[in-house]
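Researcher: Re-running this chain for the archive, since the previous output was lost when a drive failed. Same request as before.
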Amino acid sequence: MTAAAGDAAWTALLDRFEHDLDTAGDAAGDWHPLGTPLPPHLVDRARALVARQAERMSLLHAELVDTRAHLAALDLVPPSRTITAAYVERDA
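Model: Regenerated structure tokens:
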């Protein structure tokens, strides 16, 4: 892979990662490391992206903890109906 092709591949990959972060990334697919080193002029961009990903992971973890707490609280609420017969049969 030429330097220009490697640069273009890294730029496209970073673009994809940024897009995934900006759009919640629910449909993000697999990715594979590129066969060329990260070009020096993209290092700061990649570091900023890693920081954004770490922040997103932290927020998702906090949301997961909150959701688990809400689900646990819901488990404490008794059912609104008791299981009893609604009709009584009588012999006619």
